[in-house]
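As a warm-up, study this chain.
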Amino acid sequence: MTDLLAFSDDLPVEPVPAGDVLIAEGSQPGRMLVLVSGEVVVERDGVPFARIDTPGAVFGEMSAVLERPATATVRAVSDLRVHVIDDPLGFLTDRPGAALTVLRTTASRLDGLTHYLVDVKHQFADAGGHLGVVDQILDKLVHHQGPSARTGSARDPEGDHAHPDDASGQAEGL
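Now compare it with the structure written out below.
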């Protein structure tokens, strides 16, 4: 994770006092943050589920990349310092090494969650009721591929559409 510290070393550092909320659940995508020092707790629906104190940890990347509201609250447990990335998509586009580091972090988190769900599935395989839906949840997670990709280029940034001068939707000469 320290790779992300190197990739963000030239960005502003913001001090955050203990108790402050860095990202609020439900807030619109905005900044991405890289932990320099300190400790945060991550919570959803008021339930804490992770404590993170690893320098280089990233927060706000899911909301930025998916262009969706934040799914969790990140709160400072201690006084901390974070690198502030005001344009996360630009940062990830301009710094492919940073994008790969964030991808690896996200993939690692997903892998951990998948291992956990498989373990729960084994534990409650014969259970009925709400515990019996673990199978369905795991299936949805494994097969969910996110939003559909759209074609586009510098010449045709919108892609995937019929052009006004071509009613058939087919590109000329192709």
